[in-house]
Amino acid sequence: MSLSLAPPRLMAAVATSFLIAAPSALAEDHDTKEAWRLFVADHAQPVVRAIDFDNGRELGRYDLKGYAALTASASGRTVFATQSDADIVHVIKTGIGFSDHGGHRDIEVEDAALLPVTFEGKRPFHVVPHDDHAILFYDRGGKADIIEEEPLLDGKAEVRSIDTTAPHHGVAVTMGRHVLVSVPDTAAEVKPDALPPRVALRVIDENGREVGEQATCTDLHGEATSAKLAAFGCKEGVLIARPGGAEGPKLTLLPYPQDWPKAMTGTLLGGKAMQFFLGNYGEDKLALIDPDSDEPYRLVELPTRRVDFILDPASPRNAYILTEDGNLHVLDVVRGEIARKAAVTEPYSKDGHWRDPRPRLAVADGQVAITDPRHSLVRVVDPETLKEVRTIPVEGQPFSIVAVGGSGASH
């Protein structure tokens, strides 16, 4: 489903998918249960906390080796805590799992836990969740690991490693039996301890052989998937990968419009119920990207620089953007316009170090959860009214945050 469709048709498709599941979910032998949990990493301490979103109670505290960035798996059953400066990744079991039964899905809720499996390598950075696995890229290790999720829950590691040519700050994404991998410029002159720039994207098959031609993608940074497509941010535009069968994915560059100001996309999000991508364009603009449209780009202006942005998985036409003036903006991705905004935190300037403590966003149970490290809080905001519903006190400086959960039948 593409953004080029008219809004009424878009919303009808979303509503229909919900109604199909409703009769079975209300069957007499099914009790509906809902559970949501937040996982919050501290900015100053090597610790991650699991929090019950409903009552704010801390469910667990997990001591790590270093500062952690958090990434939830596609299923939501695990969270990867990537500690780049400590060369290690821990995995946390969220304790929330779903199983699909056609007309309904079941939910199982158990204790969260720090799993006994860790992954060590030189500067792990990007973690890309996809289907039943995740891809972990080691910037200084010259490899990427494809990690199967199911064995992790049994305390085991099932890993397939991919050669990334040379150490670089890159990314790897699976597409069927193929893997899309960033390409470093090994001929570039770099300063001591610096990493070479990215110049292209290549495709390798299940035997590690490169197939097809490399696609130019200068300064490649940022990736996302939507439906069956993958997108990568480049200096020249956004590179789109489409499934191509046995011959491997097809790579097509969407150049930025010539009348746009000079900038690039370096962070991308992918729509779930609709096929589209949302990326930054510089620091104070966003790019809405519909790869199947004759005019694939729409530019969204922001009043100040963005601090964080996220898509709402349950309300697919909503995106939320926090800007450095403390305002939360609701973007209607179908209309390509900011629908409303309101102040939700104090101003947090983007000046200073890129990893200074600033708010981060998550969506849980139809509400926006915002870390506020200055005040040791997670602020919960209603996206319709943009009013603060409540706050959740969190010790220390809450920073990186992910939310997992939902509703299902409980037998």
From TrEMBL:
InterPro entries: AztD-like (IPR047697), Quino_amine_DH_bsu (IPR011044), WD40/YVTN_repeat-like_dom_sf (IPR015943). The keyword Cell cycle does not apply. This is Zinc metallochaperone AztD. Residues 1-27 form the signal peptide. Keywords: Signal.
